[in-house]
Design a protein that fits this description.
It contains 11 helices and 8 strands. The protein is an alpha/beta fold. Belongs to the PanB family.
Protein backbone atom coordinates (compact mmCIF):
# COMPACT_ATOMS: atom_id res chain seq x y z
CA UNK A 1 0.00 0.00 0.00
CA UNK A 2 2.40 2.67 -1.23
CA UNK A 3 -0.30 5.30 -1.51
CA UNK A 4 -1.66 4.82 1.99
CA UNK A 5 -1.60 7.70 4.47
CA UNK A 6 1.04 7.35 7.21
CA UNK A 7 1.08 8.43 10.86
CA UNK A 8 3.34 11.43 9.98
CA UNK A 9 0.85 12.43 7.23
CA UNK A 10 -1.90 12.41 9.85
CA UNK A 11 0.21 14.31 12.41
CA UNK A 12 0.85 16.98 9.75
CA UNK A 13 -2.90 17.55 9.43
CA UNK A 14 -3.05 19.42 12.76
CA UNK A 15 -5.30 22.50 12.38
CA UNK A 16 -5.98 21.68 8.70
CA UNK A 17 -9.21 20.39 7.15
CA UNK A 18 -10.89 17.94 9.54
CA UNK A 19 -9.66 14.35 9.60
CA UNK A 20 -12.41 11.88 8.69
CA UNK A 21 -12.28 8.60 10.62
CA UNK A 22 -14.54 5.58 10.98
CA UNK A 23 -14.24 2.12 12.42
CA UNK A 24 -14.35 -1.05 10.29
CA UNK A 25 -14.10 -4.69 11.26
CA UNK A 26 -14.54 -6.53 7.97
CA UNK A 27 -13.21 -6.41 4.40
CA UNK A 28 -16.43 -5.28 2.68
CA UNK A 29 -16.98 -2.40 5.12
CA UNK A 30 -13.28 -1.44 4.83
CA UNK A 31 -13.76 -1.19 1.04
CA UNK A 32 -16.80 1.06 1.55
CA UNK A 33 -15.17 3.49 3.98
CA UNK A 34 -11.62 3.60 2.52
CA UNK A 35 -12.20 6.13 -0.30
CA UNK A 36 -13.85 8.57 2.15
CA UNK A 37 -11.66 8.25 5.24
CA UNK A 38 -8.22 9.35 6.40
CA UNK A 39 -8.10 6.82 9.24
CA UNK A 40 -9.86 3.47 9.54
CA UNK A 41 -9.83 2.18 13.11
CA UNK A 42 -10.22 -1.49 13.90
CA UNK A 43 -11.78 -0.64 17.26
CA UNK A 44 -12.22 -2.99 20.17
CA UNK A 45 -15.84 -1.86 19.90
CA UNK A 46 -15.90 -4.93 17.61
CA UNK A 47 -16.58 -6.96 20.75
CA UNK A 48 -19.90 -5.26 21.39
CA UNK A 49 -20.81 -4.47 17.78
CA UNK A 50 -20.07 -7.82 16.10
CA UNK A 51 -19.61 -10.34 18.91
CA UNK A 52 -22.44 -9.42 21.27
CA UNK A 53 -20.17 -8.84 24.28
CA UNK A 54 -21.54 -6.58 27.07
CA UNK A 55 -18.41 -4.34 27.04
CA UNK A 56 -15.01 -4.17 25.36
CA UNK A 57 -13.34 -5.95 28.28
CA UNK A 58 -13.63 -9.47 26.83
CA UNK A 59 -11.96 -8.64 23.51
CA UNK A 60 -8.72 -10.57 22.90
CA UNK A 61 -5.55 -9.91 20.91
CA UNK A 62 -6.48 -12.73 18.54
CA UNK A 63 -9.85 -11.10 17.81
CA UNK A 64 -8.15 -7.78 17.02
CA UNK A 65 -5.63 -9.54 14.75
CA UNK A 66 -8.33 -11.47 12.88
CA UNK A 67 -10.42 -8.33 12.25
CA UNK A 68 -7.29 -6.31 11.48
CA UNK A 69 -6.30 -8.76 8.76
CA UNK A 70 -9.79 -8.59 7.26
CA UNK A 71 -9.81 -4.77 7.23
CA UNK A 72 -6.31 -4.57 5.76
CA UNK A 73 -7.51 -6.51 2.68
CA UNK A 74 -10.10 -3.80 1.98
CA UNK A 75 -7.90 -0.69 2.30
CA UNK A 76 -5.85 1.23 -0.25
CA UNK A 77 -5.70 4.81 0.97
CA UNK A 78 -6.63 5.21 4.61
CA UNK A 79 -4.28 4.76 7.55
CA UNK A 80 -5.24 1.61 9.45
CA UNK A 81 -5.04 1.80 13.24
CA UNK A 82 -5.77 -1.23 15.44
CA UNK A 83 -6.95 -0.99 19.05
CA UNK A 84 -4.93 -2.74 21.75
CA UNK A 85 -7.47 -4.75 23.76
CA UNK A 86 -7.91 -4.66 27.54
CA UNK A 87 -5.32 -6.73 29.42
CA UNK A 88 -2.78 -6.91 26.59
CA UNK A 89 -0.76 -3.73 27.24
CA UNK A 90 -1.37 -2.30 30.72
CA UNK A 91 1.17 -4.44 32.61
CA UNK A 92 4.04 -2.38 31.26
CA UNK A 93 5.94 -1.18 28.22
CA UNK A 94 7.45 -4.62 27.44
CA UNK A 95 4.09 -6.40 27.37
CA UNK A 96 2.64 -3.57 25.29
CA UNK A 97 5.53 -3.68 22.81
CA UNK A 98 5.43 -7.47 22.45
CA UNK A 99 1.69 -7.49 21.71
CA UNK A 100 1.64 -4.33 19.59
CA UNK A 101 4.50 -5.70 17.47
CA UNK A 102 2.46 -8.87 16.88
CA UNK A 103 -0.55 -6.79 15.87
CA UNK A 104 1.56 -4.76 13.40
CA UNK A 105 3.38 -7.77 11.96
CA UNK A 106 0.27 -9.93 11.53
CA UNK A 107 -2.25 -7.28 10.36
CA UNK A 108 0.01 -4.88 8.45
CA UNK A 109 -1.39 -1.90 10.36
CA UNK A 110 0.89 1.15 10.66
CA UNK A 111 -0.21 2.18 14.15
CA UNK A 112 -1.99 1.02 17.29
CA UNK A 113 -4.32 2.84 19.67
CA UNK A 114 -4.36 2.43 23.42
CA UNK A 115 -6.43 3.96 26.20
CA UNK A 116 -4.77 6.30 28.69
CA UNK A 117 -2.72 9.48 28.87
CA UNK A 118 -0.61 10.04 32.00
CA UNK A 119 -0.93 6.40 33.04
CA UNK A 120 0.30 5.20 29.62
CA UNK A 121 2.93 7.89 28.92
CA UNK A 122 5.87 5.59 29.63
CA UNK A 123 4.37 2.88 27.41
CA UNK A 124 3.59 5.31 24.58
CA UNK A 125 7.20 6.57 24.67
CA UNK A 126 8.54 3.00 24.72
CA UNK A 127 6.50 2.01 21.65
CA UNK A 128 7.02 5.18 19.62
CA UNK A 129 10.77 5.00 20.36
CA UNK A 130 10.85 1.49 18.90
CA UNK A 131 8.97 1.95 15.65
CA UNK A 132 5.34 1.57 16.71
CA UNK A 133 3.29 4.74 16.14
CA UNK A 134 0.65 5.22 18.83
CA UNK A 135 -2.70 6.97 18.86
CA UNK A 136 -3.75 7.81 22.43
CA UNK A 137 -7.37 7.73 23.66
CA UNK A 138 -8.48 9.85 26.63
CA UNK A 139 -11.61 11.25 28.25
CA UNK A 140 -14.13 8.41 28.44
CA UNK A 141 -11.97 5.32 27.96
CA UNK A 142 -14.44 2.42 27.70
CA UNK A 143 -11.97 -0.20 28.97
CA UNK A 144 -12.14 1.66 32.32
CA UNK A 145 -15.95 1.36 32.50
CA UNK A 146 -15.81 -0.38 35.87
CA UNK A 147 -13.45 2.20 37.35
CA UNK A 148 -15.69 5.02 36.04
CA UNK A 149 -18.86 3.20 37.14
CA UNK A 150 -20.48 3.72 33.73
CA UNK A 151 -20.11 5.56 30.43
CA UNK A 152 -20.59 9.12 31.73
CA UNK A 153 -19.25 12.36 30.23
CA UNK A 154 -15.70 12.95 31.50
CA UNK A 155 -13.76 16.13 32.30
CA UNK A 156 -16.60 18.33 33.58
CA UNK A 157 -15.73 21.10 36.05
CA UNK A 158 -12.47 20.61 37.91
CA UNK A 159 -11.97 17.15 36.32
CA UNK A 160 -11.03 19.05 33.13
CA UNK A 161 -7.48 19.47 34.43
CA UNK A 162 -6.99 15.68 34.57
CA UNK A 163 -7.99 15.26 30.92
CA UNK A 164 -5.75 18.15 29.85
CA UNK A 165 -2.84 16.46 31.68
CA UNK A 166 -3.65 13.20 29.88
CA UNK A 167 -3.60 14.96 26.49
CA UNK A 168 -0.30 16.67 27.24
CA UNK A 169 1.27 13.46 28.56
CA UNK A 170 0.22 11.50 25.44
CA UNK A 171 1.54 14.19 23.09
CA UNK A 172 4.81 14.56 24.99
CA UNK A 173 5.30 10.78 24.97
CA UNK A 174 5.17 10.84 21.17
CA UNK A 175 1.60 9.87 20.22
CA UNK A 176 0.85 11.02 16.64
CA UNK A 177 -2.80 11.82 17.45
CA UNK A 178 -5.26 11.49 20.31
CA UNK A 179 -8.90 10.42 20.50
CA UNK A 180 -11.05 12.57 22.80
CA UNK A 181 -14.18 10.69 23.84
CA UNK A 182 -17.28 12.14 25.49
CA UNK A 183 -15.97 15.39 26.96
CA UNK A 184 -17.47 18.91 26.99
CA UNK A 185 -16.90 21.20 24.03
CA UNK A 186 -15.00 23.79 26.07
CA UNK A 187 -12.48 21.13 27.16
CA UNK A 188 -12.09 19.66 23.67
CA UNK A 189 -11.34 23.13 22.31
CA UNK A 190 -8.83 23.81 25.08
CA UNK A 191 -6.99 20.51 24.44
CA UNK A 192 -7.05 20.97 20.67
CA UNK A 193 -5.46 24.41 21.12
CA UNK A 194 -2.78 23.32 23.57
CA UNK A 195 -1.48 20.03 22.09
CA UNK A 196 0.55 19.88 18.87
CA UNK A 197 -1.00 16.60 17.63
CA UNK A 198 -4.40 16.21 15.94
CA UNK A 199 -7.34 15.56 18.25
CA UNK A 200 -9.97 13.13 16.94
CA UNK A 201 -13.31 13.64 18.63
CA UNK A 202 -16.16 11.26 19.42
CA UNK A 203 -18.77 13.02 21.49
CA UNK A 204 -16.24 15.83 21.82
CA UNK A 205 -17.73 18.65 19.69
CA UNK A 206 -16.60 20.09 16.33
CA UNK A 207 -13.67 21.85 18.05
CA UNK A 208 -11.43 18.82 17.33
CA UNK A 209 -9.04 18.31 14.39
CA UNK A 210 -11.09 15.33 13.23
CA UNK A 211 -14.08 13.13 14.00
CA UNK A 212 -14.61 9.41 14.43
CA UNK A 213 -17.75 7.28 14.76
CA UNK A 214 -18.42 3.57 15.04
CA UNK A 215 -19.54 2.67 11.52
CA UNK A 216 -22.33 0.35 12.64
CA UNK A 217 -23.71 3.15 14.87
CA UNK A 218 -23.83 5.71 12.07
CA UNK A 219 -25.39 3.21 9.67
CA UNK A 220 -28.12 2.25 12.15
CA UNK A 221 -26.87 -1.35 12.25
CA UNK A 222 -25.95 -1.40 15.94
CA UNK A 223 -28.73 -0.04 18.10
CA UNK A 224 -28.35 -2.00 21.36
CA UNK A 225 -26.71 1.01 23.03
CA UNK A 226 -27.66 4.53 22.05
CA UNK A 227 -25.76 7.70 22.76
CA UNK A 228 -26.33 11.35 21.93
CA UNK A 229 -23.12 11.71 19.90
CA UNK A 230 -23.72 8.83 17.46
CA UNK A 231 -25.65 10.50 14.64
CA UNK A 232 -27.47 7.99 12.46
CA UNK A 233 -26.82 8.67 8.78
CA UNK A 234 -28.87 5.64 7.69
CA UNK A 235 -31.24 3.05 9.11
CA UNK A 236 -29.71 -0.07 7.60
CA UNK A 237 -30.92 -2.19 10.52
CA UNK A 238 -34.52 -1.33 9.74
CA UNK A 239 -33.93 -1.98 6.01
CA UNK A 240 -32.40 -5.36 6.80
CA UNK A 241 -35.27 -6.30 9.09
CA UNK A 242 -37.84 -5.44 6.39
CA UNK A 243 -35.92 -7.47 3.78
CA UNK A 244 -35.68 -10.49 6.08
CA UNK A 245 -39.42 -10.29 6.87
CA UNK A 246 -40.18 -10.13 3.09
CA UNK A 247 -38.05 -13.20 2.46
CA UNK A 248 -39.69 -15.17 5.29
CA UNK A 249 -43.18 -14.32 4.03
CA UNK A 250 -42.36 -15.21 0.40
CA UNK A 251 -40.87 -18.58 1.41
CA UNK A 252 -43.93 -19.41 3.51
CA UNK A 253 -46.24 -18.39 0.64
CA UNK A 254 -44.10 -20.30 -1.91
CA UNK A 255 -43.58 -17.06 -3.88
CA UNK A 256 -39.79 -17.44 -3.57
CA UNK A 257 -38.01 -18.89 -5.49
CA UNK A 258 -39.82 -17.47 -8.56
CA UNK A 259 -39.24 -18.83 -12.11
CA UNK A 260 -36.26 -16.49 -12.69
CA UNK A 261 -34.41 -18.07 -9.75
CA UNK A 262 -34.88 -21.65 -10.94
CA UNK A 263 -32.48 -23.77 -13.07
CA UNK A 264 -33.92 -25.60 -16.07
CA UNK A 265 -32.76 -29.04 -17.11
CA UNK A 266 -31.41 -27.44 -20.32
CA UNK A 267 -28.84 -24.62 -20.09
CA UNK A 268 -30.22 -21.17 -20.96
CA UNK A 269 -26.73 -19.88 -21.91
CA UNK A 270 -27.04 -16.36 -20.46
CA UNK A 271 -23.77 -14.52 -21.35
CA UNK A 272 -21.62 -14.31 -18.23
CA UNK A 273 -24.31 -15.99 -16.18
CA UNK A 274 -24.42 -19.27 -14.25
CA UNK A 275 -27.64 -20.46 -15.90
O1 LIG B 1 -13.29 0.93 19.70
C1 LIG B 1 -13.65 1.96 19.08
O2 LIG B 1 -14.49 1.91 18.17
C2 LIG B 1 -13.04 3.24 19.47
C3 LIG B 1 -13.53 4.49 18.81
C4 LIG B 1 -14.96 4.76 19.11
C5 LIG B 1 -12.68 5.65 19.10
O3 LIG B 1 -12.17 3.23 20.28
NA1 LIG C 1 -11.77 1.33 21.35
Amino acid sequence: RNTALTPPDIAARKSQTPLVCLTAYTTPVARLVDPHCDIVLVGDSVGMVLHGLPSTLGVTLDMMIMHGKAVQRGLERALMVVDMPFGFYEEGPEQAFRNAARVMAETGCAAVKLEGGQSMAETIAFLTGRGIPVMAHIGLTPQAVNAFGGYRVQGRGKDAQLVIKDAEAGAEAGAFSVVLEKIPEVLARRITECVAIPTIGIGASPACDGQILVVDDMLGLFTAFQTKFAKRYAELGQMAEAAIADYAREVRERRFPAPEHVFKDQSEAVPGGDA
